[in-house]
Amino acid sequence: MLRLNRLSLTDFRTYASLTWRPAARISVLYGPNGSGKTNLLEAISLLVPGRGLRGARLADLPRQGGFDTWAVAGRFQTSEGKADIGTGSAPDGPADRRVFRLDGQAPRSQADIARLVAAVWLTPQMDRLFQEGLSGRRRFLDRLVWALEPGHAREMAAHDTAVGSRNRLLADGRQDRAWLAGLEDAIARHAVAASAARLALVSRLNQQIEAGLAGSFPPARIGLACPIAGRLATEPALAVEDWLRAGLEAGRKRDAAAGGAALGAHRTDLLMTDVTTGTPAALASTGQQKALLIGLILAHAALIAAARGFAPLLLLDEPAVHLDPQRRDSLWQVLAGLPAQIVLTGTDREIFLPLVAHAEAFETGGGSLRPDTSFLRPDAVGSPVSCVP
User: Fold this and answer.
1) Residue 38 backbone dihedrals phi, psi, to 5 degrees
2) pLDDT at 381 over 60
3) What pTM does this model have?
C-alpha cells in the first residue's frame, strides 16, 4: 500500500516548521476554521504533480511573516520502495517558480513522481461543482483523467495553447490562412486525443460505479456534454479530426466576433445523474450532490488501484458536511474497510468518534498538531509529531 510515512513543512501557509509522521492508516484532523487543517491536506496534495487541491497561486503558499519561500517534503513507501519527494520555491530562482525533488535530485519530469504516488481529494469547494460554470467541472474531470493518463495534461496544454494563439490572430484581424490552418490542425488533433481520454475514463468510472459501493451512497451515471466525444462514440478518430478542422475553418468569422472558439475540448461539460432517482446532479439537493461526489471519488480511487496496483492517498476535507447521519455512518464504514491511507478533516471532533478504533486524531491550531488520546494511540510508533514554533 502507498503510505506517507513523514510530512515536513517549512514556512508553508500557517506552519513555520512541522514534522508529522502519520502512524495509522486513517488520520483525523479537527479544529476550528482557520486552524490549519486544509493547509496540511494541501501540502500533501502538492507532493503529486499539479497545483494541489486548492489550485492556489504560488505567491499564496509562503507563511505570512516568513521569508517568501516555502517547502513541503514527504517520505513515502511506494510499490518501488522508499521515496523522498519534495516541492517548494526554487532555492536560487524567482518566488513564483516551483521545483520538485525526487530523492534529492531534480526529476527528469513530473511523470517520474506521478509513477510513484497518486492522490485524490474532496473539498468543500467541490460541493458547488454542479451549480457553477462548466470550466470548474472540466478541470475536475481532467484531474480525474490525469490520475490515470499522465499524458492527458500535455494534450490539454497543447490544445489550450493553440486555441489561445488562434483567438489572438482572429482578434487582431489577421487572416493568415496557412497559420490559422496550422493552429486549427493542432486544435483538432489535441482535442480529439483529450476527448478520447475523457470518454474512456467516463466509461471506466461508470463500470466501477455499477460494480457497487458499500453503504448508502447513491449510484451515479457520468456523462459528457461534448460534440467531439459524441462523434468519437460512433466515428473513427481521424474522421472526427477532419470534422473539427472543417468546423473551425468555417467558424472563423463567428469566433472572431465572439472572442473565442465555439468548438474544441474546452467546451466539454461533465454530467452526473442519480441513477436511483433519475435526478440530474444540477437539480439535486446539496446533500444528494455531496453523496454523489463521494461515491464518484471512491470509485475513482478504486479505478486507480485496479489500474496501477496501489490505492491513491485519499484527502477528504470536511467530507461529513451536508451528509445526513445515515450516509455519514456509511462513509465511516466504507473508509474503515478501504486499503488506502486516508486523511480526514472536520470542525467537530464528535462526528469522528465512530472511527476511534480505526483512526488517529489530532487537534490543529497554532501551527502545530496535538494528539487526541481518545483515538488510536499515535505514540505507538514513536514520536509522530514535532514542531518548532
Assistant:
1) -65, -30
2) no
3) 0.86
